[in-house]
From TrEMBL, chain A:
It comes from uncultured Thermomicrobiales bacterium. InterPro entries: Ald_Oxase/Xan_DH_a/b, Ald_Oxase/Xan_DH_a/b_sf, Ald_Oxase/xanthine_DH-like, AldOxase/xan_DH_MoCoBD1, AldOxase/xan_DH_MoCoBD2, AldOxase/xan_DH_Mopterin-bd_sf. Keywords: Oxidoreductase. It comes from the Bacteria. It is an enzyme of class 1 (oxidoreductase). Residues 1-26, 447-467, 757-781 are annotated as: Disordered. Its EC number is 1.17.1.4. It holds the Pfam family Ald_Xan_dh_C. SMART domains: Ald_Xan_dh_C. This is Xanthine dehydrogenase, molybdenum binding subunit.
Length: 781, 168
């Protein structure tokens, strides 16, 4: 081998392959998915396996007086009943290990696992689970986060230092109270959101066994194999290396597979019983068993100066954490930080808290606190624009973040601020597509909305009994910001190993990186990044990603971070391997690189000062709706969704993330109404929990992709997968307001809520539509 | 529980077995025949992940008892095209990015194929109506509709199942 650079050696090679960065080749994994050959966790089996069935609490808060396994053990086929006493170290959790694998003395939510039945057949396991006799003494249920902190309220987790207060965040800059006192116009409102269920189509399942060498293998689905390994190993009291997590085909995740569910049960049974085991949850177990998106209550006061600049914001957020921590601390920090959205606000006083209750635990869900926070922020921005007679686009243009602006935490934003660019692209496209919209150039202050395409101008809501009954169209726009990558000092890194093979030239490569493809297509994106760097065809780049023992740790498939962080690790490992290639005559070289993005810091506990994030994504969405005042039904007719992705590694995959994210956001805004009462889940099946169908989603979802290069991402790419969830809810609220004149503040916007709002609208509407220079409160509308 | 004999033609092969009368078709296909391409999503008839074709009609196999299929023909995703080939609908879903996690895909493909036999040139609204009973949580349906449209066009042009190997 000579000392030529790869570039020189390539001089006589064929032209660069086609399937590289910026193209959208068909996904290699999709072939097995269209033929039915792909194996999801529920499709797996091992010779001689036992079937597991978890006994769920079925009650929100109770003391366990006794567990009698004898009736179950007497049932033919039942082999064992495992309880808390069988778990070597009965605690786990993503951030804080406050959750038992099997309940120990008390159950704190309906989905808590109490016992685990192992049997020779699935039927025997199911029957055995029904025969386990658990004696409970019910305890008072903490179901309302608003009263969970009141003195005398029972404690969900006794012994915690702050009672039912799981976490509290304060971010202060300038003098918010003074700024609001001196502002020309101040608005105040309260917003509420409910739980959202991920509803990934493939319920939790998996198999586990113990290898001859003593390693416990759990084959399942998840979002971070290496952290699943850490948590599972900890519950068994084993070193990490003695546990192997393998991912089968993953049937969707959306944050709902970040927390462990079936994995520690599978590992426990395999390890204890020394037999292969299989566990498949049904839909109701899934609905009860994994954390949801946080319900939040947000009270916000925003004030603007006479020149239309936002002067100050006070906001207060309470999130229902449910019975265990999950990722609530992190979600509430993220949500609190984003209570001012993507706006420059010199004076802020932001306060967030997460409260323990006996409701289902809440954790990660695509958006991670950003959708709730910006429902409030963007609604306030829209109302302020209206209150001062300003155009909703122009008002945003004046106030959105610019490059170099300070965050509420007092430090400059990371470079690459695409807030204004995404808004302007979105507004222009919305005007072209919908034929209506905003001129963005300063409509005459106080002018009413332009006539709608659908027909006549919007009458005053609730004042015209006949006109009110006709469906009316409206358009709304909103912006969004979301951190990409981990925040607040959480260790952020990804490691990739690249192996090159060939004689003379590099002929093929293997990339090892433990990154979970939950359906988003990141495995193809990582291969494209490697193929591009190596100038190899895609088929010559193999990827090993689904085994914690065979690939290094990439971190989680969350925070829209894998393309950005894992992609950069692959990019750098490719460069490192390529640099070694000319230096050796070996037919194989290998390089391992750990990429660490710029550091973030925890926030100062008093002031909230710090560097919360190293990268943000920006988006803007415009939505056209039709509201039927007679029924309260809202239909989404069209969506423009603008995203700054840095660089589109695989454009079609990005469009797929936009379209799918919009559909989830549409469900969140209009349909998905996860309900609990006194700690019991009322929406236990998809009969009760409505998900968007092909007919609920508009024909027209227009993804607009902007490419402002990120300084850190591979080829300038940044993440984007969560952003479609962020502006949508307030954009729909604005569109409904545009159509029928009422502001909705409680998510989801069900027909009942729309009708109630219309019934109440004269008062509400008057308060909103007649701004007073002093405080005008429309709280509770 | 007592079992009853049942004979069902599955993917062209007659299968005779004993099932409990309560056994749903989806469990017969998955557990007894090992046809795991038929997925279980919701178990209450909403999601359509378990869609198969019964005498050519798309049905949700979690809503059908095995004994109801007695004497009838069932087609699952594994039997849509001859072994080693891709049906044009499968090819279109693959090439048009008509899936992400893929869990809904077998049901979507079978629903779409049944539609195209009834209506070889459906408009988008007809396609959306046809797949309304098949939930997808990943794609937002745009690429699914696009895949069905492309499949319709290719089938109108005479596309036939084509070998898998050439495409991988």
């Amino acid at each position: 081998m000579g000392m030529l650079t790869l570039g020189h050696r390539r001089a006589g090679m064929p032209p660069a392959p086609r399937d590289v960065v910026g193209t959208s080749p068909p996904r290699p994994d999709a072939l097995a998915k269209v033929t039915g050959a792909a194996r999801y966790p529920g499709d797996l089996s091992r010779p001689g396996q036992l079937h597991l069935w978890a006994v769920l609490a079925g009650r929100p808060h109770a003391r366990i007086l006794g567990v009698d396994a004898r009736p179950a053990l007497a049932h033919p086929g039942v082999v064992a009943v495992l309880t808390a006493a069988d778990v070597p170290r009965n605690r786990f959790g993503l951030i804080e290990d406050d959750q038992p694998v099997l309940a120990e003395g008390v159950v704190r939510w309906v989905g808590e696992r109490v016992a685990l039945v192992a049997a020779e057949t699935r039927e025997a396991a199911a029957t055995g689970a029904r025969l386990v006799e658990v004696t409970y003494e019910d305890l008072p249920v903490v179901a309302d986060p608003a009263t969970a902190l009141a003195p005398g309220t029972p404690l969900v987790q006794p012994g915690r230092p702050d009672g039912n207060l799981l976490t509290e965040v304060r971010i202060r800059r300038g003098d918010a109270a003074g700024a609001l006192a001196g502002a020309a116009t101040v608005l105040e409102a309260t917003f509420t959101t409910t739980w959202q269920e991920h509803a990934f189509l493939q319920p939790e399942a998996g198999v586990a066994w113990v290898e001859d060498d003593g390693r416990v293998v759990v084959e399942t689905a998840g979002q971070w194999a290496h952290d699943d390994r850490r948590e599972v190993a900890s519950t068994l009291g084993l070193p990490d290396e003695q546990v192997v997590i393998r991912y089968a085909a993953i049937g969707g995740a959306f944050g709902g597979r970040e927390d462990l569910t079936v994995q520690p049960l599978l590992a426990l049974a395999a390890w204890t019983l020394r037999r292969p085991v299989a566990l498949v949850w049904d839909r109701t177990e899934s609905m009860l068993g994994h954390p949801k998106r946080h319900p939040m209550s947000i009270r916000a006061r925003w004030g603007v100066d006479g020149d239309g600049r936002i002067r100050g914001v006070e906001a207060d957020l309470t999130a229902d954490a449910g019975a265990y921590a999950s990722t609530s601390q992190e979600v509430v920090k993220a949500a609190t930080l984003l209570l001012t959205g993507a706006y420059r606000v010199p004076n802020v006083a932001l306060h967030g808290r997460a409260v323990l209750t006996n409701n289902v635990p809440t954790g990660a869900f695509r958006g991670f606190g950003a959708p709730q926070a910006q429902f409030a922020a963007e609604s306030m921005v829209a109302r302020l624009a209206e209150a001062i007679g300003d155009d909703p686009v122009a008002f945003r243009q004046r106030n959105l973040y610019r490059e170099g602006d300070l965050e509420p935490t007092g430090r400059p934003l990371p470079a690459g601020v695409g807030a204004l660019a995404t808004l302007e692209a979105c507004a222009a496209e919305a005007r072209r597509r919908f034929g209506i919209g905003w001129d963005g150039l300063g409509r005459v202050p106080g002018a009413s909305s332009a006539p709608r395409q659908a027909g006549e101008a919007v009458p005053s809501a609730g004042t015209d009994g006949i006109a009110r009954k006709r469906p009316r169209r409206g358009v709304g726009i909103a912006c969004g910001i979301k951190n990409l990558g981990y925040s607040f000092g959480f260790p952020e890194r990804a490691t990739a190993t690249v192996e090159l093979y060939g004689r003379g030239e590099v002929e093929r490569a293997t990339v090892r990186i433990g990154a979970a493809d939950v359906g988003q297509g990141v495995h193809l994106a990582l291969r494209q990044i490697a193929a591009d760097g190596l100038r190899l065809p895609l088929a010559a780049v193999a990827l090993v990603a689904d085994d914690s023992a065979e690939a290094p740790d990439a971190g989680s498939a969350s925070a829209s971070r894998l393309t950005l962080v894992a992609g950069r690790a692959v990019h750098d490992a490719v460069a490192a391997a390529r640099a070694k290639w000319p230096e050796t005559d070996d037919e194989r070289v290998e390089a391992t690189v750990t990429y660490r993005p710029p550091a973030t810091t925890p926030l100062d506990p008093i002031t909230g000062e710090g560097t919360p994030n190293y990268c943000y994504g920006y988006a803007a969405q415009a939505v056209e709706v039709e509201v039927d005042p007679a029924t309260g039904v809202v239909r989404v007719l069209g969506v423009v969704s603008a995203h700054d992705v840095g660089r589109a590694i695989n454009p079609r995959a990005i469009e797929g993330q936009v379209e799918g994210g919009v559909a989830q956001a549409l469900g969140y805004a209009l349909l998905e109404d996860f309900r609990m009462a006194d700690g019991f889940v009322l929406t236990r099946t998809w009969d009760d929990y409505l998900l968007p169908t092909a007919l609920d989603v508009p024909d027209e979802i227009v993804p607009l992709v902007l490419e402002t290069a990120d300084p850190n991402g591979p080829f300038g790419a940044r993440g984007m997968a969560e952003l479609p969830l962020v502006p949508f809810l307030p954009a729909v609220a604005a569109a409904i307001h545009d159509a029928v004149g009422v502001w909705l503040t409680d998510q989801p916007f069900t027909p009942e809520r729309v009708q109630f709002a219309l019934d109440d609208s004269p008062g509400t509407s008057a308060r909103v539509r007649t701004p007073s220079p002093a405080t005008s409160s429309d709280d509770g509308s | 529980m007592a079992t009853v004999p049942v004979t069902v033609t599955v993917n062209g092969t007659e299968r005779t077995t004993e099932v409990e009368p309560r056994t749903l078709l989806v469990y017969f296909l998955r557990d007894q025949l090992g046809l795991t391409g038929t997925h279980i999503g919701c178990q209450t008839g909403q999601c359509g992940a378990c869609t198969v074709q019964l005498d050519g009609e798309a049905v949700k196999s979690c809503m059908v008892l095995t004994v109801q299929a007695e004497g009838h023909a069932v087609t699952t995703i594994e039997g849509l095209a001859p072994a080693g080939t891709l049906h044009p609908v499968q090819a279109a879903f693959w090439e048009e990015h008509g899936l992400q996690c893929g869990y809904c895909t077998p049901g979507m493909v079978l629903t779409a194929e049944a539609l195209l036999r009834d209506d070889p040139d459906p408009d988008d609204h007809t396609i959306r109506h046809a797949i309304e009973g098949n939930l997808c949580r990943c794609t937002g349906y745009q690429s699914v509709v696009q895949s069905v449209r492309v499949a319709a066009t290719r089938m109108a042009e005479g596309a036939q199942p084509e070998p898998l190997l050439r495409r991988s």
